[in-house]
């Protein structure tokens, strides 16, 4: 018997495409109204002055200006103080 037995079907061949998340415009760059600054899952970066937060937590520019990133302390739901990056347009 010089043949190979039939192999089973592969079940783990499916994979989803990457979501292209991350910071799209960095600090000091010029931005216009509606441009995407950060795409994120969850609220890892906070929307500050001059920005808006969409339903999928994407931060957009609400006005023309220059992007700045600052670190601030926020109060969590449990009352703990946590550091988060705040995105603003000035």
By secondary-structure content and strand pairing, the structural class works out as mainly beta
For the biggest sheet, the summary is: 4 strands, antiparallel
How much beta, percentage-wise? 35-45%
CATH fold field value: OB fold (Dihydrolipoamide Acetyltransferase, E2P)
| Total count of strands | 8
DSSP helical segment count: 0
Query: First CA to last CA: what distance?
Result: 77 Å
Globally, the shape reads: elongated
User: Spans of 5+ residues with little confidence (pLDDT < 50)?
Assistant: none
The CATH superfamily name is RNA polymerase II/Efflux pump adaptor protein, barrel-sandwich hybrid domain
Kindly state the mean pLDDT as a whole number?
Answer: 92
SSE string, helices as H and strands as E: EEEEEEEE
Q: Give me the CATH architecture, please.
A: Beta Barrel
Question: Mind telling me the CATH class?
Answer: Mainly Beta
Count of domains: 1
Return Rg in Å.
Answer: 22 Å
Helical amount: under 10%
Query: How would you write the strand order of the largest sheet?
Result: 1-3-6-5
Annotation keywords:
mainly beta, four-stranded mixed β-sheet, 90 residues, 0% helix, OB fold (Dihydrolipoamide Acetyltransferase, E2P), 8 strands
Q: Topology of this protein?
A:
Blueprint: E1 22-23, E2 30-31, E3 36-39, E4 45-47, E5 51-53, E6 59-61, E7 65-75, E8 81-89
Parallel strand pairs: 4-8
Antiparallel strand pairs: 1-3, 2-7, 3-6, 5-6, 7-8
Write a structural description.
The protein is mostly beta strands and 90 residues long. It has a single domain, classed as Beta Barrel (OB fold (Dihydrolipoamide Acetyltransferase, E2P)), CATH 2.40.50. It is built from no helices and eight strands.
């Amino acid at each position: 018997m010089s043949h190979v037995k039939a192999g089973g079907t592969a079940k783990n061949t499916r994979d989803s495409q990457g979501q292209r998340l991350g910071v799209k415009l960095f600090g000091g760059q010029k931005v216009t109204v509606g441009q995407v600054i950060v795409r994120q899952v969850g609220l890892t970066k906070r929307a500050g002055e001059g920005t808006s937060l969409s339903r999928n937590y994407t931060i957009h520019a609400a006005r023309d200006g220059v992007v700045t990133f600052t670190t601030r302390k926020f109060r969590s739901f449990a009352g703990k103080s946590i550091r988060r990056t705040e995105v603003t347009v000035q």
